[in-house]
Design goal:
A three-stranded antiparallel beta sheet has the order 1-3-2. The chain has helices at about 15-25, 40-45, 50-60, 80-105, 110-125, 130-145, 150-155, 160-170, 180-190, 195-225; strands at about 35, 65-70, 75. It starts with 13 loop residues before the first helix and ends with a helix. The protein is mostly helical and about 230 residues long.
């Protein structure tokens, strides 16, 4: 029987699957920022060899989600001020550009998609569940609809880092903002084809979130020093 193109199943190594599991735990804040990771403990928990765990951890280090320490010690990367600043300023540049592009060429179909994403924000706010997912999905939709593939590719590389930040923020300070009220001005600017306003609002929202997270970090450090 000849092999049909496009139907083959890629074989994945144990290290790849371990990397995926670790990434899932980090991006959901199941393993919080700064958490110590012990190779022997992970190997026993995952049912794999220590060498496989080490390969998975090395892969995660390349993604910037894990740090290595002297004497083969590992830890989930920390969300320090510099890391947050780099992620948020890049996000602000990309999202504000996407918002400008989308607003300048908004269609009826785009407006319907935005309203659907806005409804998801309302549902998340009312239920108190999946807030971070709904928030990120709304902003990802703007990028998805901006019709600039290179911008979309750059934003895709940032997606894991944003999920990581959101999970840790929600874990420490759940319901910090009202999702519906927070997004209303941006939704209005987008649907009204106000490109400059949409870009400005998107940029300002990102930078305001950066300030909130920097304040949260300072508060946590202050509490630790008191103890």
């Amino acid at each position: 029987m000849s092999k049909k193109p496009g139907l083959s199943i890629a074989k994945r190594s144990l290290a790849d699957m371990a990397s995926d599991r670790l990434k899932e735990a980090i991006l959901s804040a199941e393993l919080p920022a700064g958490a110590r990771l012990v190779e022997t403990d992970l190997a026993e928990e995952m049912g794999i060899s220590r060498g496989t765990v080490r390969a998975a951890l090395s892969e995660m280090k390349r993604d910037g989600l894990i740090d290595s320490r002297p004497y083969s010690s590992w830890a989930v990367a920390t969300l320090d001020g510099q890391t947050l600043w780099e992620i948020y300023t890049l996000r602000a540049s990309l999202e504000s550009g996407a918002a400008r592009l989308l607003a300048s060429q908004i269609t009826a179909d785009d407006q319907q998609a935005i309203q659907k994403a806005a409804k998801a924000l309302v549902d998340a706010e009312r239920s108190g569940k999946n807030r971070g997912e709904a928030d990120l999905a709304f902003h990802a939709l703007i990028v998805e609809r901006c019709r600039n593939k290179m911008l979309q590719q750059s934003y895709a590389k940032l997606a894991d880092k944003l999920q990581w930040i959101y999970a840790n923020s929600e874990a420490k300070e759940p319901e910090r903002i009202d999702l519906v009220e927070w997004h209303k001005p941006l939704i209005s600017a987008l649907c009204s084809a106000e490109a400059d306003a949409a870009a400005r609002l998107s940029f300002d929202m990102c930078m305001a979130s950066l300030e909130d997270d920097l304040t949260a970090i300072a508060d946590i450090r202050s509490k630790r020093s008191i103890k």
